[in-house]
Amino acid sequence: MEKYKMDFKEEVPKYIQISKHIKSLIETGKVKNEEKLPTIRVLAKMLSVNNDTIISAYKKLKNEGYAYIKMGSGTYAKAKDAYVKLKKDYSDLFKKMDKKKFDMYVDFAEENPCGEYFPIENFKSVVNEVLTRDGLNALVYQETLGYEGLRNSISKYLWHGAIDEDKIIIVSGAQQGIDIISKAIVNINDNVAVEKPTYSGALSVFKWRRANIFEINLNDDGIDLDEFEKVLKKNYIKCFYTMTYFQNPTGISYSTEKKREILKLADKYDFYIIEDDYLSEIQYKDDFGYISFKSLDTKDRVIYIKSFSKIFLPGIRIGYLIMPDLLVEQIENSKMTTDISTSSLMQRALDLYIKHGYWRSYISKINSLFKARYYYMHDKLEDILGNKVKVNDPCGGFSFYLKISDSINLNCTDLFYRCKKEKVLITPGVFFYKNNDDGLKYFKVGFSKTDEDKILKGINIINSIL
């Protein structure tokens, strides 16, 4: 009980000081996970405070995830998972660091084009055109589906009229799209299938919905179909979430044949395919080609998600969904409960940006700019890291997914912290798996925020640590 004793400072409420002290005991291991905390009466007497102070302290610990209550038994410590701390440390890097500090780092973690390449004059011209044309109307809320002009442009210029604009709904980026779909079709204890590994944001959404998540291993051309069908035979799967081009994190792209087979399975076993079109435009092979799940979908089984934020500018949160007929009402209602409307001004500006041909010319520019950097980084990873890691070759996107050799006694969590100390930022593989331990030998490195000098510097630092 001695460890619970403490001295109080007058300027801070006592219940906050008590909760911080116990939190520190849990974080340092002096109070073990699942260890029972002193009863309210005993701790109040020891610290010479009233019972209500301890009740407030325990309530604060519970709200922060450091304690839980067993009815009729008492309050117990809940040690934070090491991966929870890792995620917090990782996200804090991008929340709290300004551009000046970031310039000191080799940033292999972020994955969107550098702002310096964005044709700001084109964007300024369409914003000014919108304000001149529409005035205050450009700043008012739009209907739930989104600005009609943008939906029309998406249908006409991006889908060549093959998709009815009434089946398109504008959202604030891919993450919101996944969330809206999940709210519309996934209930507690529903079964969902995902690729293994997969986008951490999708995992978080499905976990938050308290769904049962089935992971399907990836081969070089997409998921293992035999494994997937075994899962489908034993469990009613509500939906399958997939990134079919330059999958996050592996960089794998699906073969057209495999897409057709999965569409057959969707019809046979009655599930929806959530197709997250991540970075399909960013291709470095001239003959790569592009055929989406949605374009092959004849049974209305695919819910298509596309975000402009990753390629356009991250601060402009716009994307869209293509809804199956049977889910239009559910998805629209889900969107309404999520937010009223996506930015009206940005929707109108993006509409003109697409109509004037700026979008296609920008994509062409991005592919040209990053192609050389892609091949430079790939070659340096293979030349310098050699047999220390296995290097993938996605031929598109902004990153490489690397596996640390089994002969090296180091995991990606330790590598992250050691790289961070050396001013290099990587993304640990543990984020991309339902069971974090499955990703301990993997990490991801991106090149969209680095020039060739920094790429070389960062790879050499990673090499020295490995």
From TrEMBL:
Keywords carried by this UniProt record: Aminotransferase, DNA-binding, Pyridoxal phosphate, Transcription, Transcription regulation, Transferase
Superkingdom classification of source: Bacteria
InterPro entries per record: Aminotransferase_I/II_large, HTH_trans_reg/aminotransferase, PyrdxlP-dep_Trfase, PyrdxlP-dep_Trfase_major, PyrdxlP-dep_Trfase_small, Tscrpt_reg_HTH_GntR, WH-like_DNA-bd_sf, WH_DNA-bd_sf
Keyword Phosphoprotein annotated: no
Statement: the UniProt record of this protein carries the keyword DNA-binding: yes
GO molecular function, one term: transaminase activity
Pfam family, one: GntR
Sequence ranges assigned to domain HTH gntR-type in this UniProt record: 12-80
PANTHER family registered for this protein in UniProt: HTH-TYPE TRANSCRIPTIONAL REGULATORY PROTEIN GABR
Family: In the C-terminal section; belongs to the class-I pyridoxal-phosphate-dependent aminotransferase family.
Name this protein carries in UniProt: PLP-dependent aminotransferase family protein
Organism placement in taxonomy: Bacteria, Bacillati, Bacillota, Clostridia, Eubacteriales
